[in-house]
Amino acid sequence: MPSLKSLFRRGPGRIGAAEARRRTADGAAVLLDVREPSEWNAGHAPGAAHLPLSALVEGAPPPAPAGRTVVVVCRSGHRSRQAARILSGRGVPVVDVMGGMTAWAAAGFPVRDRRGNAGTVA
Which domains can be identified in the chain, with CATH numbers? Predict the structure, then answer.
């Protein structure tokens, strides 16, 4: 029997930065950054795929093989939540990262710029 909490949950699940790193570290899930190119260039998680939310809204497919979970991240969690709902509506297994790249960096996880150097969350 489903819990009361699961009956009222709306949309895709949400996870923290540590869980996002755990799920994507071995390639079991794809980390998808939906920020704009300037934000991505300033700093992103190593190994993350990039697809701006605007492109996703226009119908671009996520860069993940069918059936593979997509872990969506943005700067703070607002755009990733939108992206997760879009992808969920397309039947993609998806979760989004609460607190986004801000939480990722605060947890001490690596952030790299477009050249592979230490980056910043913009």
Answer: 30-106 (3.40.250.10)
